[in-house]
Amino acid sequence: MASLEDALTEIRAALLRPGLIRAVGSGQRRGATPSCERVTLRPVAVKAGERWQVVTEDGQRPTTVLVPVGDEATVGKLLAEPFGSWVVETVDGTVRLQATKKGAIVHRSGPPAARPSLEHDRVKGHLLDPGDPLFDVIGGNAAKRRQVDAFLRHLPTDISAPLKVADLGCGNAYLTFAAYAYLSSLGLDVSLTGVDVREDQRERNTALAEKLGWGDRVRFVAGTIADVQIEPPDIVLALHACDTATDDALARAVRWQSKWVLAAPCCHKDISRQLRQHKPGLLTAHGILRERFADVLTDALRAGLLRENGYDVEVVEFIDSAHTPRNALIRAVLRGSSESDPELAALMEQWQVTPALSHKLAAVS
User: Fold this and answer.
1) Are 114 and 141 in a shared domain?
2) What are phi and psi of 48, to 5 degrees?
């Protein structure tokens, strides 16, 4: 624990040191309110040379100004704001400050892997800019980056630190790394665990976490979603876990009693197979209609089962279908009280199906 004055002195030094990549101030200290919700400072290249771009956000419309690099007056003004947290990324490393009642917690991590892009005229409206140096390290094509950015927009806003997050079926961990980058940029004390069945993925992703200087905050485990043993997370993420892997993720979230669950399902083969076993009707006689109906029925049953297990649930479109046809997102928040749903049982009886999630929840209850 450091005094707030000493912590701000260290933040000031990091801001003024050559090699600044980005700085973000956000939140508020106890008993004080800053003049804006969030400020982001980063270097940009303009015709007149390199400048600092300062973007302040008041919850309605961001304001952008350009100031000279290393402008001490700007730094002094920003640090005078009673922000609850600061994150300053430089070529030498990252310094994070979290204000407390007794002073401040300062966390330092190793250097990032890449220098920032100084392009000024960037595409607006991204939580993580597609040109963020992070993507130079973790890869991912433009379509994947759009999906990840859209997914992040549905993360809860009423969150507090410390925060534990699990990305189940993480694969190449694009979402894992992006979620950590975004949540930590908000000044949150967050740790994130990615789970994938493949050992080679664990090794690859662990190496990238070390390269980014995040090895102490982002870790990876090889194992099945159903059986992996990790500390119960506050938030469970699952982006396009195939077929019943999504059900594994939802069942584990229920077992852990995770407060938030965000799952964007991929294919829905389980219910489709069950529908093919019965006499076809108007909705199932044609293959394309059966597959689309199976998608809707599967996610409706998943939502109903989560509600029965104490969650408030909404199913939304998290990205336009032009970017991916698998654009539904199940977003659930733990309510606490479980209750049976006669309509859910009637729906399963009507279509003579038993969803995989029902079996998996029965196995853990």
Assistant:
1) no
2) -80, -5
Last residue of a domain, one of 121, 153, 186: 121
Q: In angstroms, rounded to a whole number, what is the distance separating the alpha carbons of residues 193 and 259?
A: 16
| pLDDT tens-place string over residues 185-229 | 888 899 999 999 999 999 999 999 999 999 999 999 999 999 999
Residue 54, Cα to own-chain centre: how many angstroms?
24
Q: How far is it, in rounded angstroms, from Cα 363 to Cα 257?
A: 15
* pLDDT value of position 111: 59
Question: From CA 47, how far away is CA 121, in angstroms rounded?
Answer: 12
Last-in-domain residue among 69, 97, 121: 121
Question: Does the global pTM surpass 0.70?
Answer: no
* CA distances for 301 relative to 96, 177, 280, 345, 358, angstroms: 43, 31, 20, 9, 9
Mean pLDDT over each residue of the chain, to the nearest integer: 87
Q: Which residues are bridge partners to 57 per DSSP?
A: 38
**Nearest CA to 100 among 25, 190, 2, 217?**
2
Per residue, what are the HEC states of 158-185? CCCCCEEEEEECCCCCHHHHHHHHHHHH
- For residue range 130-178, what is the model confidence (pLDDT) as tens digits? 677 788 889 878 788 888 988 998 888 677 778 999 999 999 999 999 9
Q: Which residues span the domain enclosing 177?
A: 137-364
Task: State the number of CA atoms in the 13 A half-sphere of 309 facing the CB.
Answer: 26
Band of the pLDDT at 350, cuts 50, 70, 90?
very high
Tokens of 88: 């300053």
